[in-house]
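Work Package 3 (structural annotation) set out to generate three-dimensional models for the target panel prioritized at the project kickoff. During this period the team completed the workflow that converts sequence records into discrete structure tokens, so that structures can be stored uniformly alongside our sequence database. As a representative example, we reproduce one entry of 135 residues exactly as it appears in the project archive.
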Amino acid sequence: MNSELLEAAKQAMANAYARYSGFHVGAAILAENGKIYSGCNVENAAYPIGNCAEASAIAAMVRDGAREIREIAIIGGKQGRASAACMPCGGCRQRILEFAVDSTQIHIFTAAGLHRTYACKELLPDSFGPKDVAG
């Protein structure tokens, strides 16, 4: 795993806007162009319109013209409390799938730094994705 990727996710988590839940999340993507893109969660008083960290990082990657996620690191938790690993929500699993390749690795971390690596098919088995709607 790329150590710069984890560091970028940690920095993003530190900048999260989690005023309501106190649950800070950071994500960082290593794209096919070798660049790292990061994002954090941004909450809103009207909860449904907040942004997930993974969605923010993917948007930054796409804005820069990249289209493949080689690796993604996700870290999160409540400040001052130990928590379980920060698994991506269903919507973010689908977003990751949209830009994943067969070798994409998804690294999930606790705020304490413990981690596990998944393949996309482990997080979203029997998925519906780009292959199902291709030309």
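The first helix runs from residue 3 to 14.
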